[in-house]
Amino acid sequence: KLDFHPSGRHFLQIPGPSPVPDRILRAMSLPTIDHRGPEFGALGRDLLTKIKRVFKTESPVIIYPASGTGAWEAALINTLSPGDRVLMFETGHFATLWQKMARRLSLEPEFLGLPGVEGWRHGVQADMIEARLKEDTHHELKAVCVVHNETSTGVTSDIAAVRRAIDAAGHPALLIVDTISGLASADYRHDEWGVDVTVSGSQKGLMLPPGISFNALSDKAIAASAKAQLPKSFWAWDEILEANKNGYWPYTPSTNLLYGLNEALDMLEEEGLENVLARHQRWAAGVRCAVEAWGLEIQCQDPSVYSPVLTGVVMPEGIDADEVRKIIYERFDLSLGMGLGKVKGTMFRIGHLGDCNDLTLIATLGGCEAGMKLAGVPLKGSGVTAALDYFAAHPMHRAG
Ligand code: PLP
């Protein structure tokens, strides 16, 4: 509980849900309309066209009234059959949860990864995937499933490298990618990277509340769905694709969240997606300068895959990261991400995504710095000053 009566805005700096801009909140507050009427059809057609540009795809994108977990399940059950083997890669907590889901759905996941917590400090190792696929000469593995931006660690994997690994092995497995926390914050290219199903969610880079999620498809994925035998009804792509042709859904969609999505897509287009991505890279670099100035370790140990969305800050031995987060919350009304699964208590996560700016991030780093001092974390220097200097020396330029 907060130590004082809060004023101003709460600092929601977890790596999703991210702060929802006023413009989106206003759009969502409009009256709900008839989801079978002409006004809705026009909205649906417009949305379903615009959303493709964010995934960088020409193929259909399905929108579910569900959190990201629903879209995870949809991706698996639309393309696979009971007992199918799937190759998954342990990058962190979310990759682990997806693997557990695959098992519950009666698939047979093989969980590749680096040993211990090493895998939680690096991205997907495409060479390990290639080696495993080359061994699979009878093509028993039906899909390769990887997490693009592992939200539990702050590591963004190289999906193009995974595609090359599958091609180098000459393997027909589907490539299914979770970019629930990467979309509209980290570079993502569904078509160019040859992804068959991309899973995403609303409450991260799209700056919406939780509650809608996505499957971007490929022709190969749609063909696989015609043969896939896992039971599905609500999640089945065929009826949704049919209704979507006219901008409708086979059931009642989340009308007001779709108003919000429409507004979010307009905001992203006004700024330009490439500008949005550059803004996230720049914030992430500033936050890393702060962590370095504090003399602390970043959870991600491979600079080539630092996440532009969040940064995991490792606490020195003997310090409980959850205790530090608690102090920061109670004293400064600032929420940070907790360490999940194997890294519980050893690190916390700073989200720097969506509707932020340099000064909200400086304030966030200020809360972290003051809270860590109160918690007795030995700091080498001021991360706030380091980040301010970085932002001042690297002005944002409008491109395009
Ligand atoms: N995958 C990743 C990478 C996530 O970050 C999350 C949520 O944070 C999920 C899956 C699960 O999504 P949801 O909590 O929206 O069901």
Automatic annotation (TrEMBL):
<keyword id="KW-0663">Pyridoxal phosphate</keyword>
<dbReference type="GO" id="GO:0004760">
    <property type="term" value="F:L-serine-pyruvate transaminase activity"/>
</dbReference>
<dbReference type="InterPro" id="IPR015421">
    <property type="entry name" value="PyrdxlP-dep_Trfase_major"/>
</dbReference>
<protein>
    <submittedName>
        <fullName>Alanine-glyoxylate transaminase / serine-glyoxylate transaminase / serine-pyruvate transaminase</fullName>
    </submittedName>
</protein>
<dbReference type="GO" id="GO:0008453">
    <property type="term" value="F:alanine-glyoxylate transaminase activity"/>
</dbReference>
<comment type="similarity">
    <text>Belongs to the class-V pyridoxal-phosphate-dependent aminotransferase family.</text>
</comment>
<dbReference type="InterPro" id="IPR024169">
    <property type="entry name" value="SP_NH2Trfase/AEP_transaminase"/>
</dbReference>
<keyword id="KW-0670">Pyruvate</keyword>
<dbReference type="InterPro" id="IPR015422">
    <property type="entry name" value="PyrdxlP-dep_Trfase_small"/>
</dbReference>
<dbReference type="Pfam" id="PF00266">
    <property type="entry name" value="Aminotran_5"/>
</dbReference>
<dbReference type="GO" id="GO:0019265">
    <property type="term" value="P:glycine biosynthetic process, by transamination of glyoxylate"/>
</dbReference>
<feature type="modified residue" description="N6-(pyridoxal phosphate)lysine">
    <location>
        <position position="204"/>
    </location>
</feature>
<dbReference type="InterPro" id="IPR015424">
    <property type="entry name" value="PyrdxlP-dep_Trfase"/>
</dbReference>
<feature type="domain" description="Aminotransferase class V">
    <location>
        <begin position="35"/>
        <end position="287"/>
    </location>
</feature>
<feature type="binding site">
    <location>
        <position position="349"/>
    </location>
    <ligand>
        <name>substrate</name>
    </ligand>
</feature>
<dbReference type="InterPro" id="IPR000192">
    <property type="entry name" value="Aminotrans_V_dom"/>
</dbReference>
